[in-house]
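Protein 1 of 2
SEQ + STRUCT:
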Amino acid sequence: MIVQLCSMLIQVFAVFVDGAVIGGCLGASSLASYGFAIPVATVFSGIATVFSAGISGLCGRAIARGDKEEANRIFSQGVWAALIVSITLLLFCFWGADWLAAILGAGSDLEKETAAYIRGYVLCAPALMMLLVLMPIMQIDSDKTRIIKAVCIMTGINVSLDLVAGLILHKGLFYIALCTTIAYYAGSLVLLMHFGKSSSMFRLPIARSIPKLQSVMELISYGLPDALQKISRSFLNICLNHILLITGGAFAVSAFSAVYSASLLCMILGSCIGDSIYVMNSLLAGEKDTESMKIMLRTALKTALLLNAALSVIVFATAPVFMRLFFNSDESAFQIAVTGFKIYSLSIVFYSLNVVWRTYYQSMHLLKIAHSYVVLNNFCFIALSAYVLSRFFGTSGVWYSFLAGQVLTLLFIMLLNLPRIRRAGALDGMMRLPADFASEIVSSYSWSAHTLNEIMQVSESVGRICKAERVSSRISFILSLMVEEIAVNIYTYGFAEKKTHSIDVKLQHLNDGWLIRIRDDCRLFDPTRYVALYDYSSPEEHIGIRMVKKLASRIEYTSALKLNNLLITLDI
């Protein structure tokens, strides 16, 4: 979850810091101009996220199948496509900043400052794209430490430069945005150093990896819900800015800029809980591991509910402290913002539950539902609620629309799945698994081992299961031997560290053979690569791994989420 947290921080912390510096140093008028420019930053983040989600999701599925070559192809072509799109957006928005400011409704008195911020921010497009694309890839490639370093460096540079530009030099919005751009490029350079490591599963794209249209469209379709989320929020911001301008004037718009900037930090916890299931569910879905998918969903929903309930209470109690960061002297705007932030805090729990389900549907490639979920959750229900409630409660109605929109979305998705819920139960109905999901699996068995004795018990259990399923003695012997040899090898070399480790074994009887999946949390080790490198060394070395490789029809190794995954297939 640390990686998801870092990814979210990259997207929201710059918005929060810029908003606080602009409001505290430049005043409510500049903060209002910044509020009109936020939709552009949100769209940029959304387009970057569509490539990030598409590349990481498709790579995760390829790795789950043991196809590292396909994962590298997806990564290379995706990076090229992301760079081309980001440079195109940079050129278009930089030269069209004045036109964009007018379209966003900034008005003649705020249009110049709005356009200035847009010009400074769009320069970061290629760096932002690389940051969001590379982070989940390095999570899969087990380099979380570099991600944390990049976020720390980027945050330090951004805060330092913003304070210098705002407090000391008293520069305008263009320079505040430029500080964010410099920080993004520094962070992306730190991430790019990962790909110089010989142990990296992925390689930076080369000329022959120029993306094909079909590959790009596949990435976009897979990651589109994330882009729709950002684009929907951009339209929502535009609508709410106009409603607040009518109901409360410029002070209300300034207050909304502060509330929105602070709300992004509140969304991080719910979003990273939801997004943490994205890569893992892609892997589990690739393995057709239905039971583990259910356990993961239950855990994510429970965690989201408990943690975000606590967060909601904290935000409500500390709303004046948060809003004071944005307002030093404009007391009218400050009071409006405090009221808005308190009311907004009531929606945090429902937002987190919606994110969990949305990311699950996206990882399952249920795109129509995922797309609808995003648009309804981030635009339609909130905008409709704001329009209706503002007629009765004025500015406060806009704040209550966040709660109403989240509740309406959750009710809608439950009603959509109501026939399935009645037939299969609450969780199974909401999961919407197709009838033929895992149909190639005749039976499946799972074990966990922490000691040598437990490993031997697992091997014996495999033999008993084969006997119960009337498998030939030869196949039974081979399957038991494979489990025992690989697990003992992991125990011998991986458990030597003074840490508690676990070996998870899954045995699946398929229509055309057997599949063994062995997963452990020891130090990363690819047995297939080791055997290939030392094929001519002493025959008695690692004889167990050699024996398994000769007996298996296919053997594939992948490392994801800092776990070793070995897939052994035995065709019949």
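Protein 2 of 2
SEQ + STRUCT:
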Amino acid sequence: MKAQVKPVIAFAVELLRPYWRRLLVAAAIGCLNSFAAVSLLAIIDRELRSGTAASLSALAAFPGFFVVMLASEIASGAETGFIGQEIVASLRKEMTKKVLLAPIPEIEQVQSHRVLAALQQDVGNLSGFSRALTYFVVAVCEVLGCAIYLLYFSAPMFLASAAVWAGSYLVTRYVLKGAYATLADERAAYDELQKHYGALINGAKELKISRERRERFYRGELVSTIHRLRDVINKSATLFLAASALDNASFFLLAGALLALAPHLGADTATLSSFVLAILFMRTPVSMVILSLPEFSRVRVSFEKVRELSERFASLESDLLAEGAPAKIEFKELELRGAQYVFPHAAGAMPFTLGPIDLVLKKGEILFVTGENGSGKTTLVKLLLGLYPLKQGEIRLNGELVTDANRDDYRQNFSAIFFDFYLFDDLIVADEAASEAVRSYLERLNIAHKVTVEEGRLSTLELSTGQRKRLALIGTYLEQRPLVVFDEWAAEQDPTFRRIFYTEILGELKRQGKTLIVVSHDDRYFGAADRILHIREGKAVAEGHERPKDGPAPAASTSP
């Protein structure tokens, strides 16, 4: 456990480092609040023990200390809250930046529900932590101030109180230990619930048509996870409430112990009453500290999850958000030399390997990539796009080696529509000329009656997959990049638009000088290609205009 806590503390310290001066100011204001509160307590205690009417000095001092206590509590709380929200905003920006810069293989391996849980649940917990920290700082200052006040009154009574309190704290801590253990289970159950929520939405059609699957998913998985999360939260809440109850009871236990010990410690009735008054005053801030512990415990778990994700998404390409467009080049040639990629795999399993592959693409070529499902076509596309790192081999653009330093500049030569594409509703080029061009494309692609362009944004994305792919095609027109990748673009098109794509659109793009990489199963239109690269079991087995008959994959790739 200690080995796990140290990195979390280091991560938390790193987050707090930019705000340490403001934290010191907030702590100083909290100490001023504690001083004012203890001063008020001292005035009340002195006047009660005097047995006479309140003195003029007490009546004069009381309002001043009261205003200072009230103002300092608000100021300390507000400053701590502002700092907390600054930290949360900074963490949100940093985490979204990490996801944006993360290597694609890492994003694909980390399931989306875990990323969303970290961005929503864990960062949300840190936001709650910032609010709890506000009250925690003030409460700790008040407890420390009262402790100093009690020590000033009677050291023996203070030490006796501390001993009794320490004993009750050990019991409370034992209960809290069990409560802390449930928080990791709570977080795991929440992750699982996020996963089921995704299946509930994305698998709605499959669930609707299969009664058996629907029953198994709802009762066996979704409801089971909801109940597990409910139970672990109830267990956690019960244990934390028990700890809070023990803490409250400890005040009365302490008061009873002082009543019994006072004669043996040389404390008179006045001293005893002062101690009891101070202890009752301390009950609220101490309870505040105890009630903050569950929030801080959840934060520890959240810190660990966020830290793990942050480390996993570390990228060698740290300048992806640097401003400035890459220098435009005239594309002439793209070459793969012995390019190979190996998928991460579970221990004991055989990894899937693409390549080694040699390939040369010239300006204005149309290359069709074919192969069975799972053969490595999309992997090759991601390798060409610079989204997957090479295990061995190299990529050269116009003869220049592609490295970590220039890989993002290299990617800017491509437009791509993936099979599992995501469509944004804004246009990268959003001027009026671009909007007019988009309107023209919408007419040609027969979706102008469903989509319009307003202030550089598409009016809707609520379309069929085929229609949304046509919208994505418009984006490639606007980007004006020399290489365009279509990963089974025609798969969801009706026969008319499938024919238009292969017989008209590809030819138009070729005449514009673009190099096209088309992943396709449509052997009827293979004649539209200049070359065909067939992939089988991760190996390039043939090139030409004829699709080869399936057979055993060779041990090595073929060169163009």
